[in-house]
């Protein structure tokens, strides 16, 4: 059983529910995809590599010798930083889970407003069908603050079923 959380803390509720998504979808027969995370890591490490190369050039060469290379590196740094920002803001935008089951792929984005018990879930499949719903967090947590995984599983099972019906 998981550890209890403060059910009156919105960040704790959101984090616990977000962390339960991979296990819940695994029970539903999905395999998690890490493409978004891998892309974000690649961009971040590329930015850090460029900064490191720039630092090394500053230490090893004179200012005049390194100036042309520094201009190129600064340009690459800016471009990658803008791509990273765009990716985080518009491509990833709240995605907490991405997975596939056979020929079917789903992407789950979640959010929870401050001082609210409603966990807003957006489910999108590879066919472009989107369905949104709200889960009242107090229905999947008991009074002691423990997550009731079976209740969460049943809710997502029904939610996923409504996406399948919408796709037909």
From TrEMBL:
It is a multi-pass membrane protein. It is found in: Endoplasmic reticulum membrane. One of its GO terms (biological process) is signal peptide processing. Its main location: endoplasmic reticulum. Keywords: Endoplasmic reticulum, Membrane, Transmembrane, Transmembrane helix. GO terms for cellular component: signal peptidase complex. The keyword ATP-binding does not apply. One of its GO terms (molecular function) is peptidase activity. The chain crosses the membrane at residues 41-57, 69-87. Belongs to the SPCS2 family. Component of the signal peptidase complex (SPC) which catalyzes the cleavage of N-terminal signal sequences from nascent proteins as they are translocated into the lumen of the endoplasmic reticulum. Enhances the enzymatic activity of SPC and facilitates the interactions between different components of the translocation site. This is Signal peptidase complex subunit 2. It comes from Lachancea dasiensis.
């Amino acid at each position: 059983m998981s550890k209890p959380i403060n059910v009156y803390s919105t960040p704790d509720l959101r984090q616990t529910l977000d962390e339960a998504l991979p296990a819940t979808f695994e029970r539903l027969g999905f395999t998690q995809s890490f493409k978004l995370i891998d892309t974000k890591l690649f961009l971040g490490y590329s930015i850090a590599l460029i900064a490191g190369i720039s630092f090394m050039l500053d230490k090893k060469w004179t200012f005049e010798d390194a100036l042309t290379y520094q201009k190129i590196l600064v340009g690459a740094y800016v471009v990658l930083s803008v791509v990273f920002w765009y990716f985080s803001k518009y491509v990833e935008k709240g995605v907490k889970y991405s997975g596939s089951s056979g020929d079917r792929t789903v992407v789950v984005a979640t959010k929870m407003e401050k001082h609210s018990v409603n966990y807003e879930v957006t489910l999108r499949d590879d066919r472009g069908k989107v369905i949104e719903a709200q889960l009242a967090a107090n229905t999947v947590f008991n009074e002691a603050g423990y997550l009731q995984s079976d209740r969460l599983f049943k809710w997502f099972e029904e939610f996923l079923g409504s996406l399948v019906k919408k796709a037909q």
